[in-house]
Amino acid sequence: MILIGQYDSPFVRRVALALRLYGLPFEHRPWSTFGDADKIAPYNPLRRVPTLLLDSGEALIESTAMLDYLDELVGPDKAMMAERGEVRRRQLRICALGSGLADKGVSLIYERVLRKDQLQLWVERCETQIGGVLDMLEKERAAVKTPYWFGEHIGHADIMVACALRFVGEAHPALFDARYPALQAHAATCEALRPFIEIVQRLDPPKG
Ligand SMILES: N[C@@H](CCC(=O)N[C@@H](CS)C(=O)NCC(=O)O)C(=O)O
């Protein structure tokens, strides 16, 4: 498998971390969405990352679809998400809040660096959405007493939230701060794991 995209993307990072935690070998092409868009386009006309090339030549688009494929590959006993039922729905909800948080963090950075005159309406909307998700996740994480969100073992929800927190913390430090101690602790637990230490890249936003 070949994973396209840089690790400063929370979505690329979540897929790379799942590959590493599953012990699945992969090659990495750290192509930039802007600088290397022409290289990405033949595999993904959206010119977005992550893009995951399978050994069959098929290209997967959307990190959730990639994790779905990887879960199938490793089987339900090893998969970092329940196969079905109520627990799966709760896990998907935390993943969606985490990926939505990352989405809004990405939108806001594009607005800040790519536009000469920022649209205040959009900036405020993104900031409100980011704050709302952080408040909700903080409350819910504080109520969880296990090391990870759904028990003793790390799962996709933990990874997505940790990747989103790192991104938002680097891109918008004023938005993720000491108001969120449970999320800070969650991030610290995950970031202390070897795969997180090895698979990381400081944010390098596109230049306007
Ligand atoms: N929902 C997508 C989000 C991917 C995404 O937002 N990628 C960003 C980089 S962090 C990107 O490719 N941006 C360039 C663009 O959207 O044109 C996923 O989960 O894979």
Descriptive account of the structure:
By secondary structure, the protein is mostly helical. Helices cover 54% and strands 6% of the residues. It has helices at residues 10-21, 37-40, 63-74, 85-114, 120-142, 156-171, 181-191, 194-198, and strands spanning 2-4, 27-29, 51-53, 59-61. The protein has a 4-stranded mixed beta sheet with strand order 2-1-3-4, with helices on one face. Helix 1 (10-21) links the parallel strand 1 (2-4) and strand 2 (27-29). Helix 1 packs parallel to helix 3 (63-74) and helix 4 packs antiparallel against helix 5 (120-142). It is globular, with a radius of gyration of 17 Å. The site of glutathione has 12 residues, from helix 3 and helix 4.
Computed structural class: mainly alpha
Question: What is the H-and-E element order?
Answer: EHEHEEHHHHHH
The amount of beta strand, in percent, is 5-15%
User: Roughly what percent helix?
Assistant: 40-55%
Radius of gyration: 17 Å
List the helices and strands and how they pair.
Layout: E1 2-4, H1 10-21, E2 27-29, H2 37-40, E3 51-53, E4 59-61, H3 63-74, H4 85-114, H5 120-142, H6 156-171, H7 181-191, H8 194-198
Parallel strand pairs: 1-2
Antiparallel strand pairs: 1-3, 3-4
Helix pairs in contact: 1-3, 1-6, 4-5, 4-6, 5-7, 6-7
The chain binds glutathione.
The site of glutathione has 12 residues, from α3 and α4.
